[in-house]
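We now fix the convention by which a protein and its fold are recorded. Here is one such record, which you should read through line by line:

>
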Amino acid sequence: MFQARDMLIYLSLICEGDTRKMVDLINLKIEIDEKDMEKKLSNRNFKCITVLDKDYPDLLREVPLPPLVLYYEGDITLIYNIKDNISVVGSRDCSPYGVSITQDIVSKLSKKFVIVSGMANGIDSIAHQTSLDNQGKTIAVLGCGTNICFPTDNLKLMNEIKKKGLVISEYPPNTPPLAFRFPQRNRIIAGLGNSLLVTEAKIKSGTAITVNYALSMGKEVFCVPHQVGSQGEGCNALIHDGAFLIQTAQDIFDYFEDVK
């Protein structure tokens, strides 16, 4: 007899991790093909956590359309206490200043916080690598299956995160990295951190999606100021709209000390 948890995993597999499709099928009370379900579940060679599991973080339930199943490779305990995590995002095409300030701030934050990001080129990858270089822990949230590396030149980084941190995705193994999946995964990046740090962003950028998710969950958004007219001026716009201006990691440490 299949359990409710098995049903969720099966729906995730046939829907390629699309949570909205899964919810629609559940609401429609579709009839499950038990033979197909048995076949797919018997052949599984992955690890996952579901919204029905006791270890599923309560704060992640506050994410818009919470992921019903999360597939992972690495240390899943890193998502159990989101208050110890901080999400870091920014431009893929980052400036030397963006690289430098991200390395400086994350090198210090990683002494206390698990660094969450999306393993994209640019700021994301720099945040992950800086955390690892400083013996910190990091979580990479993918827009594809955890057995697929995207971008492909991050293979070494991804393998290192699997060994020393956590690679996680709502998409089952072998799910390709299609463009529409990355904005969807951004809600998980925002959800897995106690707050969000933006170290560089353009005025119009995908980073804004993650910022909006963080704000919708009532999380603090920290931003590094940039020179007027630079490619990081999106941070200035966020600060103008109410994001917390930070210049050093100590500003973030001080913030959390003040709000205790």
About this structure: The chain is about 40% helix and 15% strand. Residues 96-109 form the longest helix (14 residues).
